[in-house]
Amino acid sequence: MQTLEKLSLPIMGCGTWAWGNQLLWGYNESMDDQLQAVFNLCVSNGVTLFDTGDSYGTGRLNGRSELLLGRFDREYVGTGKENIYIATKLAAYPWRWTRQSMVQACKASAQRLGRNVDLVQMHWSTANYAPWQEAGLLDGLADLYEQGLVKGVGLSNYGPKRLKHVHKKFAERGVPIATLQVQYSLLSTYPVTQLKLKDVCDELGIQMIAYSPLALGLLTGKFSEKGPFPKGIRGLLFRQLLPGMRSLLACLREVAQSRNKSMSQVAINWCICKGTIPIPGAKTLEQSRDNIGALGWYLNASEIAELDQAAANADKKMVQNIFQTK
């Protein structure tokens, strides 16, 4: 049986959704050397948690994110190597419904990584549309822990009701839930303010991981209502949301200027101050350096209160993940 002490996560991680995703993030294989440099910079600066998923990578590049992470991990030589944690999420595909299918999926991820997965997470709950499917998947998740194939298990996109249900189910088997990952940012406060998820996590001893802490780039301050916008789906979303974000972005800019920090750094630091582990993505060294600049300092109580108020008053909010459960 594994112990949770083995899963000592840093206060910030790096999300790798973009590493292999052509559709949303414009990935191509010529970026790989740059991504290795991002990985190296993160690890050498104490950002040693890398979050991926077995569904990351579009089309023929499915699984690309895991393959790249495995290669980068093997080729990295430097400080912090022993602290690298790779977390993956196993998709609840319609054809994946037995406990054995989850064990096989995790073994396939480990093969792509060339090493064991440290933290394995259920990518989403099927409770909203196929509740019958979930029991087998969750049993398989717990099996992975019991068989010593992973150091910890976590959930993603679960609300408090489902979280408590799974926590009880796992506790009966002596399997602790290490983490819960949800979409959380100044533009997506719903999981914490409405669902009170952080309170439930604290009560159950679960660490909360915040994905999309920069709301797909909307909180970086790099985009204006006049454009230019990113290509594709992100561009459509930006056109829709930016006009309703004026007061939030103004507040973020004001705090950033007074702190001599970037808007991204303030947005990420806000997530840290809320007791979560943000996992902003990075495709370039510039983005990675900017993210790392969110570490080593903390917003004060009045700055947090100002940002909280501005977030509450934003006319438009980030679209919630359709799989997020209650």
TrEMBL record:
SUPFAM superfamilies: NAD(P)-linked oxidoreductase
Pfam families for this protein: Aldo_ket_red
Domain of life: Bacteria
Family matches, as Gene3D superfamilies: NADP-dependent oxidoreductase domain (3.20.20.100)
InterPro entries to which the protein is assigned, alphabetical: Aldo-Keto_reductase, NAD(P)_OxRdtase_dom_sf, NADP_OxRdtase_dom
Gene Ontology CC annotations of this record: cytoplasm
Record GO terms (molecular function): oxidoreductase activity
Keyword Oxidoreductase set for record: yes
Domain NADP-dependent oxidoreductase: 12-310
Entry keyword set: Oxidoreductase
Record's protein name: Aldo/keto reductase
